[in-house]
UniProtKB/TrEMBL annotation, chain A:
The lineage of its organism: Bacteria, Pseudomonadati, Pseudomonadota, Betaproteobacteria, Nitrosomonadales. Pfam families: MlaE. It comes from Methylotenera oryzisoli. This is Intermembrane phospholipid transport system permease protein MlaE. GO terms for molecular function: phospholipid transporter activity. Belongs to the MlaE permease family.
From TrEMBL, chain B:
SMART domains: AAA. Residues 6-242 form the ABC transporter domain. PROSITE patterns: ABC_TRANSPORTER_1, ABC_TRANSPORTER_2. GO terms for molecular function: ATP binding; ATP hydrolysis activity. InterPro entries: AAA+_ATPase, ABC_transporter-like_ATP-bd, ABC_transporter-like_CS, P-loop_NTPase. Coiled coil: none annotated. It holds the Pfam family ABC_tran. This is ABC transporter ATP-binding protein. Keywords: ATP-binding, Cell membrane, Membrane, Nucleotide-binding, Transport. The keyword Transferase does not apply.
UniProtKB/TrEMBL annotation, chain C:
Residues 39-116 form the Mce/MlaD domain. GO terms for molecular function: phospholipid binding; phospholipid transporter activity. The chain crosses the membrane at residues 6-26. Keywords: Membrane, Transmembrane, Transmembrane helix. This is Outer membrane lipid asymmetry maintenance protein MlaD. The keyword Electron transport does not apply. It comes from the Bacteria.
Amino acid sequence: MINIIVNMVSRLLRGIGSRMIARVWRLGAGTRLFMLAIVYSGESFRRFHLTLREVYFTGVMSLLIIIVSAFFVGMVLALQGYNTLQKYGSSEAIGVLVALALVRELGPVVTALLFAGRAGTAITAEIGLMKTTEQLSAMEMMAVNPIARVVAPRFWAGVISMPILAALFSMVGVLGGYLVAVPLIGVDDGAFWSQMQANVDVRADIINGVIKSVVFGVACTMIALFEGFDAPPTAEGVSHATTRTVVISSLTVLGLDFVLTSFMLVV
Amino acid sequence: MTSNIVEIDNLSFGYNGRVLHKGINMAFPKGKVVAIMGGSGSGKTTLLRLIGGQVKPTKGEVRVNGQVVHEQSRDGIYQLRRSMGMLFQHGALFTDLSVFDNVAFPMRELTDLPESMIRDLVLLKLNAVGLRGAYKFMPTELSGGMARRVALARAVALDPSIIMYDEPFAGLDPISMGVICGLIRSLNDALGATSIIVSHDVKETFLIADYVYFVANGEVAAEGTPEDLMQSTLPFVHQFVHGEKDGPVPFHYAAPDYRAQLLG
Amino acid sequence: MDRTKIDLWVGVFVALGAAALLGLAMKVGNLTSSKIGDTYSVSASFENIGGLKPNAPVKSAGVVVGRVADISFDSKTYEAVVTIKIDKRYQFPKDTFANIYTAGLLGEQYIGLEAGGEDDVLKTGDKISQTQDAIVLEKMISQFLYNKASETDKEKSAAPATSEPAKEKSTELGDAPF
């Protein structure tokens, strides 16, 4: 009886241990890939068209989803905000509410989540398939470093694209909020903008938002690249890797957002 | 011995506790077409990876041009690989690049040749495999045989002195097989290169190979010219060459007694 | 995908991003309004600054004339010393009144300057002596409740005079929108 219990407990502990080790191992391997991508990124800048091509695929191709989502998010924020603010007789503050929510949080965070779903999965699937079809091996056998040629340009493209997308998201969101607040609800046009300008700080709000989006850009792109690179070379492996990209990216973005926000509010 | 461009010396390799090779010795003389044959899963492809320095041996060594591959630095291995071309099992063409750009890829990445010269060289290589007219196509628009030929053109883009083929005949129709077969021999002779073919297609391989190694159970089971091996009385070679279904390689995977399992 | 087309689209993409950032800074943020040129700094002591924070606006007649530069605590007088930077274009008499106001009921706090009548003007390093503290909501509420309580006590004796203190307090809310 005692034996069985000891057995069960030890099996449980072993399970936790091995899972933990696997997680830490992946974290280490991911960090290693990140470092290598930085070390071998000379080519991404010397032959900048390689990076531009990836900016096209990650950034430009995500424009539509970002703009449309931002528009709706802005409109919903304005509607909901008005509903509540009006009870306190300060419906002019709707501009502040929409702008701060977007610039500080929703802009960088929702952009990163959409980016993970749109561009991140595409990166993982592409690299996973390149691995499955031995394209990466072929590159290596041709004496071409796949990290310099495949990983680094995509990494920098993601880092460049994310802040641009986030800024667009915030701006389009504010415009969406404006459309609902001013023509639709009838909040005063001047009050909408002036309240916003009086309460949104360039350094504390806008620059911090940009910093957040750069960090998210690094995290999301790197996770997508690592999952693709690490995917088992089978159809099933690539599909699992793609799913993991979305899940891990989303969790990482939300967790990082909390950490960054707390740092930014303290400093 | 100096005419051997690639030498494998007492090589052992394994991973995850599984031993794949146990003390393999092979030599690949300059200008010859040498084949490595063996059943599926006998570690033939891994031998090519060992020659290319993609994996490290657990014991023994592989020498290319007299240099021990696994002792090279990263740059040294890349330098060695520049003299190698490899044809992967399914071609491994870059699916986001056109046929032209695929063949131009190694030239653009590894040389500073002007674009006009690259163009001429690419068309030359494509002409050699008979696909000059298909330079605009994307890899997805090609048949299996054509893709293999484009990959071959890419493998020889930089006039390598060693060309490795991983299952060049697998999954091709008889006509494409014949075409590839002829190309391997003619390219080898035209470039004065050494070809290493990994395959299990006996007929085609024996047609073009100068020398053949048989790998079984992690060891070189037999070696010799195709003619020698056709006459070989070694049970394993006989079974393999003549495609007999039962022999030293049993038809049945190791299993408990049939009767006992059914009734059990 | 040919290269010129990619270049074009990426160019458009980056330009859009730059425009959005610029728009955020100009139209949404306070980059234009926060630009204060040359300033001079004066200090003022308060017994209680409530929730006043550095970089809060300093307004006179509702116009932003400066910003709060620094807030420190004087351990001798047990008062808060607030340093404010005022735009050089605006001059204020020496007997100017500095009040801490709240924008709206729960809004952020700012300093309001009410000009006095002297001829001498404030210069760098001067101290504003006449100040009024921030209104602390809890204090006000407790005061209000205390008044209510005393009101009911006094109700029998002197009913007409009791509502006076509460009313006075409520005017101190300044420009609260109710």
